[in-house]
Amino acid sequence: MIGGTTIVYYLLTTACATTIGLLIANLMKGMFPVLSTSGLEYEQQESTSFMDTLVNIFPDNFISPMSDANMLQVIVMALIIGFAIILVGEKAAPAVKAINVCNDIFMKCMEMILKLSPIGVFCLLCPVIAENGSKIIGSLASVLLVAYICYVLHVVIVYSTTVRTLGGMSPLKFFKGMAPAMLFAFSSASSVGTLPLNLECCENMGASKEVSSFVLPLGATINMDGTAIYQGVCSIFIAACYGITLTPTQMLTIVLTATLASIGTAGVPGAGMVMLSMVLQSVGLPVEGIALVAGVDRIFDMGRTTVNITGDASCAVIVSHLQEKRNARRARKEAKKNNAESGTAAMKNNTESESAAMKNNTESAAMKNNAERN
Ligand code: ASP
Fold first, then answer.
1. 272 CA from centroid of ligand 1 (Å)
2. I need a labelling partner for 177 at 20 to 30 A (CA). Which of 270, 308, 338, 360 fits?
C-alpha cells in the first residue's frame, strides 16, 4: 500500500508540475525573444506524433536505445528490467549489485563532466552573446522569472492542497516544518545531499520513521517536480528562441517525456539540464538550445531542487497520515471483532453454566427420590 500510493502520488504531481510549467510558459512566452541562433547548429527535425512517441518508447532490442542515446527507451527498458529483478527475487541479487556498481561509476563520470561544464558553457554562450548583444541577459532573466513563478505556484497550489486534504496537516505547519530542509536544498542544489535533513524535518512534523525512510530516498531518486517544471519552461523558451511554435501533440509529448525524464534525473546538481536534451529530442527541438540556458542553470537548479524535496516531504506526510488512518481503522475492526467474540464466549459460558446447574438440580432431585423410595 505504501509503495503504490507513493508511486501514484509522485507520477501525478510530476505530470501536474509539467502541465503548470507548460501553461505558464505558454502564457508568458511573449516575453521570450526570437534570438539569432546561427552560432548554434540546428537542423529542423520532423516531429513525431504523440501516438508514435508512445509506440516508440518500447525499443526493438536491448542494445539500440543505448547506442542511439534514445533516453526515453533507456528509461522504459530500465523500468522493465527493474520490475523483472523484483519478480526474480533473491536470485537477482548479483545483478542488483552489478547495477549499483555501474551506477556509482557513471555518477562519477557525470561528476567529472559537470566539473568541466563551466568551460563548455562559456564557449557555447560566447557566440550567442556576440550575436545578440546584451538583450540575451534580459531574456534569461525572463525565463528564470517564469520558472520561479511556476515553482511557487506548484508548491503553493499543489502541495498545500494535497497536504491539507490527504495529509490532514495545515500547509502553514508543513512549510514551517520544512523551512530548514528547503533552505538547505536551495543552497546545495542536491536532493540527495538534503536527504538527512529532509528525514529529520518530516519526523519532526510527525511523519512515521518507517514511511519517511522509504518515501524520501525513493523521492530523492525518482520524484523531481521542480525538474519537470524547468524542462517544460525551457522547452517553450528554446522553441520560442528558434521561432518554433509547438503543437498540442508536442506539448503532450513534453508532459510525458518530462515526467519520465525527471524520474531518470539523479538528485545531484546539474543533472536536470543533462536530461533536458531528452525532452527536446522527443519533440524535435534543437538540443543545442540548451546552451541558451546553461549559463544560469545553477539559479534554475536551486529553485527546482527546493521544489523536488518539498514534493518528497509532502508525500511522506500524506502516506504517513493515510497509514495511521488505516492502522486505526484496522485496530477498531479488531477491537469490534474481539468484543463480539468475548460476548459470544460469555453467552456460551452462561448457557453452559445454566445447563450444568439444571443438570445438577435434576441429578440431586433424582437422588432425593431414590433415597425416599428406599
Ligand atoms: N539538482 C536537482 C536535484 O538534486 C536535480 C536537477 O538537476 O534537476 O534534485
1. 6
2. 270
